[in-house]
Amino acid sequence: xxxxxxxxxxxxxxxxxxxxxxxxxxxxxxxxxxxxxxxxxxxxxxxxxxxxxxxxxxxxxxxxxxxxxxxxxxxxxxxxxxxxxxxxxxxxxxxxxxxxxxxxxxxxxxxxxxxxxxxxxxxxxxxxxxxxxxxxxxxxxxxxxxxxxxxxxxxxxxxxxxxxxxxxxxxxxxxxxxxxxxxxxxxxxxxxxxxxxxxxxxxxxxxxxxxxxxxxxxxxxxxxxxxxxxxxxxxxxxxxxxxxxxxxxxxxxxxxxxxxxxxxxxxxxxxxxxxxxxxxxxxxxxxxxxxxxxxxxxxxxxxxxxxxxxxxxxxxxxxxxxxxxxxxxxxxxxxxxxxxxxxxxxxxxxxxxxxxxxxxxxxxxxxxxxxxxxxxxxxxxxxxxxxxxxxxxxxxxxxxxxxxxxxxxxxxxxxxxxxxxxxxxxxxxxxxxxxxxxxxxxxxxxxxxxxxxxxxxxxxxxxxxxxxxxxxxxxxxxxxxxxxxxxxxxxxxxxxxxxxxxxxxxxxxxxxxxxxxxxxxxxxxxxxxxxxxxxxxxxxxxxxxxxxxxxxxxxxxxxxxx
Length: 562
Ligand code: HEM
What we know:
The chain contains 19 helices and eleven strands. The chain is α+β, with helices and mostly antiparallel strands. The strands form four sheets. Strands 1-2-7-4 form a four-stranded mixed sheet. A hairpin with a 6-residue loop joins β1 (about 90-95) and β2 (about 105). α10 packs antiparallel against α11, α11 crosses α13 (about 315-350) and α13 (about 315-350) crosses α18. Residues about 550-560 have low confidence and may be disordered.
């Protein structure tokens, strides 16, 4: 009997050993594998970031580069700085961020990016395994952006119908209507003379734009609370910034709660909308002609004869449809808002270019500013007669690219860097760093200058862009499905807003009100980008807005947040 406690102890010890040995063994096997991948690349003299250690990989090195950036700066700047300082010849480099993230093959070379998305068909189609983590709070699961190739392909074909040229033109009157509400809000700000943060005002506007274009409805987010818009905006505010580099942020339990709550609200809102439209379809098949994304999803589900449709939407399909709509609401408002803010910023700081865009607008829409909206509504094709405006949008997207791009590396698939190294992609996230590619002196003449002309010159001109060096919407089969929509929205917004308002960045004033000792510019730019879903201007772009031509007569020194 005396042996009994011993055998219990042995049992518990063995059980505990099995319980812990498994995960610990797994961890060390993965650690060894991750570190050996880098060692093997170092031995082959491939471009590997400096500062690698067996225990931490490149995590501490990356942290030291991020610490040298201004507060909250987007982590992509850190990747860009490493590329510029150490790998400008190769245009690519490896970085080992396991276990927080993965092995990265960072790409800033256009020709390597072209190989990835166009030449090497097996690389351009699948997204890396870490992407669903980013999207989890946004869409609550797999979506068009993250789907593996096989599932993605038929759905991409289906959703493409919502982005045809003719359909986009048919949406111009709705875009103009929401832009007029934005203009009214800007006018109120101008009348108050207050310092405003342009980004949140613009985010609510682009929510309304996406409501009109994707959901075929008015969300009214510019006028007040809307469950879908507000919960999505909150979801992004609570999104973990710089997730690839800061594991401690995962321990924020308030974030877990808010994500759960917002997610429930959004699912409920979209679910009810889907059910309502489903019932309308069943009652009248003619409703199924709409090309809005929400209707396209339902059309894919409906049988030929709508009368034979089941009484209720299949729950699995309903959950799938909700995820896709959440993706379109997110992708549809976030990057566009950032692009509007940066375009207005660049015009405010480049008065000659502002004058030229207004000359183009006068030529197309006439001198009567108030008539712009009705002209856009009655003649949507006028948006296609704005080459200089289009060049300004392209140049803004080059200088302040709002969205990134990443692909899943594949076994036995290599990429050849700018000096001829063959770089394996297996186990790696192939990560394009647009912020560096778009501003590298290796690929661009006068890279930091705002020069819309480079989009208007003929091939052979020194400013003519190098093939594949500009990729705000990415290239290849998984490029942005909505780039035509974005360009049209931007032309409508600029035609209406730039004709009526002047903007002045107010960072100096903001900094006086919020003194801080840290670095406040990135490569001389105060309105640098931070991660808030897409890349947005830091401090939400403090500025003042004036009715066109009245700015010099104003002398405003007080601060009234709007
Ligand atoms: C300035 C605005 C925008 C920019 C710069 C932008 C950029 C991008 C980029 C770079 C990708 C490819 C990502 C990758 O390769 O991993 C992408 C994909 C995507 N974008 Fe956009 N986007 C914008 C606006 C929009 C809008 C307005 C919508 C929806 C209405 C949208 C919906 C999507 C979707 C659904 C995908 C995934 C496509 C697929 O995998 O088939 N985007 N976007």
